[in-house]
Amino acid sequence: MLSRHLDPIVAIATAPGRGAVGIVRVSGQGIGAFVQALLGSALKPRHASYLPFKGADGQPIDHGLAIHFPGPHSYTGEDVLELQAHGGPVVLQLLLARCLEVARGHLPRLRLAEPGEFTERAFLNDKLDLAQAEAVSDLIEASTEAAARSASRSLTGAFSQQVNELRERMIRLRMLVEATLDFPEEEIDFLQKADATGQLRGICQSLDAVLDRARQGALLREGIKVVLAGQPNVGKSSLLNALAGAELAIVTPIPGTTRDKVSETIQIEGVPLHVIDTAGLRSSDEATDEVERIGIARTWAEIEGADAVLFLHDLTRLGQPGYDAGEREIAARLPPKARVVHVYNKLDAGVQPPAAEPGNRAVALSAKAGTGLDALRQLLLQLAGWHAQPEGVFIARERHVQALRRAAEHLALAQGHAAAADQALDLFAEELRLAHDALGEITGVFTADDLLGEIFSRFCIGK
Ligand SMILES: Nc1nc2c(c(=O)[nH]1)N(C=O)[C@@H](CNc1ccc(C(=O)N[C@@H](CCC(=O)O)C(=O)O)cc1)CN2
Ligand SMILES: Nc1nc2c(ncn2[C@@H]2O[C@H](COP(=O)(O)OP(=O)(O)OP(=O)(O)O)[C@@H](O)[C@H]2O)c(=O)[nH]1
Ligand SMILES: [Mg+2]
């Protein structure tokens, strides 16, 4: 069922210039006459026909495959026409213009699609729920294989299914409680009879498990931002290159080689790691050069926004007064909330790292020889909170994690009401309702229009 009247839309579904085959896609109710006028004949539903795509002058713009998916059996749930043409940007623009031209007579409200609008319609027409629609975009944007696989899993509905199962269990319990509220004389032994607290405990456990998988999924989607920081010449750029397995940043024995940040996304077990190499930190009286000073200011800005800071130390210089003073200065300025890993570099020089201070995360390695890198990778995964097998994860977003957390909070409050001496059943039911609604936000059962706008506007055009 269409929940609102929507104008037909058209877009090039493949990023122009990128694909060998490009698709122009039209979606809307009642496009039959338009298809007939554009292609000169009706098309057998859901069958690929090889045809000329003719311009106004009757000359073919291209020859390609056309497919008509009559609604509701299409991606959007509306009538859809696909023109699969050669993927050149000019050819696709010509076909798009031709569609708009033919539409003037046969589909006057046809307009260009907004980003994400095809998928938004699939959502509005109940072809996909909101978490699945988001997974479409996450699949396209996935930066690692593991992220793509888990997005695909969410797209098929694995995540939504778990959320819906939880919601159903909450509804059943709520109905039971509300029925009891209607018959107050039975209230007293309600909790024992139906084992409401036992049921609630079970729901909480399942919710925790889903929350954990969603948190892992969010990690796969967003990755973590890791900043390499330390004094000049300690080997930050060398470590970036070693982690990336490529000569990305310039390495020289000259202190102050890196002037501006160098970023690269690498992956560890499928978790995207956005690694940022920065200008070496020196105190402002040492860094007299304007360029270096700006570089250092940027380093501090990067540190502020980092999920983890790798504080590099040069084993060959430990104990030198000027060097040690520089170390203390940096340590004092690191934000208290920063998650710091102390990295003792140049282990190949034969100097042993100092004994780890209690509570400090530390690893000794050689960026040059490549030793100790695995320990660092494992430490970073641990720091990020990654513990899952990528096979078990479905992609999720911070928005989903927040909704699951809110649901868990309401369940905890419900447990409190059940445990209270007066067993406030009405409050118990109300918290269950709030938990249930929080989960509904994930799949978009009730979703504010501005949230939808925000979600779909981040899609690429044509999706
Ligand atoms: N050519 C083409 N390839 C594409 C897409 C597309 O829109 N066109 N997709 C766009 O993202 C993805 C596939 N998604 C699709 C999802 C549903 C239907 C569809 O026709 N669904 C009908 C019939 C289902 C069936 O036969 O079982 C339906 O749901 O009723 C088509 C594509 C990826 N590949
Ligand atoms: N022996 C040894 N030398 C290293 C190691 N890592 C880096 N170096 C050397 O240390 C010097 C500085 O390395 P860089 O990676 O440029 O250091 P940086 O911290 O990026 O320096 P700035 O960009 O100036 O802040 C170079 O001569 C590297 O070859 C290591 O593990 N062992
Ligand atoms: Mg450098």
TrEMBL record:
Instruction: Give the cofactor note.
Output: Binds 1 potassium ion per subunit.
Please, which domain of life does this record's source organism belong to? Answer: Bacteria
InterPro entries in UniProt: G_TrmE (IPR031168), GTP-bd (IPR006073), GTP-bd_TrmE_N (IPR018948), GTPase_MnmE (IPR004520), MnmE_dom2 (IPR027368), MnmE_helical (IPR025867), P-loop_NTPase (IPR027417), Small_GTP-bd (IPR005225)
Q: What is its EC number?
A: 3.6.-.-
Instruction: Report any Pfam family annotated for this entry.
Output: TrmE_N
User: Listed GO molecular functions?
Assistant: hydrolase activity
Is the keyword GTP-binding in the record? yes
Per its UniProt record, the required cofactor names are: K(+)
Q: Where does GTP bind?
A: 233-238, 252-258, 277-280
Q: Where does Mg(2+) bind?
A: 237, 258
Listed binding positions for K(+) are 233, 252, 254, 257
Q: Where in the cell is it found?
A: Cytoplasm
What is known about what this protein does? Exhibits a very high intrinsic GTPase hydrolysis rate. Involved in the addition of a carboxymethylaminomethyl (cmnm) group at the wobble position (U34) of certain tRNAs, forming tRNA-cmnm(5)s(2)U34.
User: Assembly and interactions?
Assistant: Homodimer. Heterotetramer of two MnmE and two MnmG subunits.
Give the record's family classification. Answer: Belongs to the TRAFAC class TrmE-Era-EngA-EngB-Septin-like GTPase superfamily. TrmE GTPase family.
Name the UniProt record assigns to this protein: tRNA modification GTPase MnmE
Q: Which organism is it from?
A: Caldimonas mangrovi
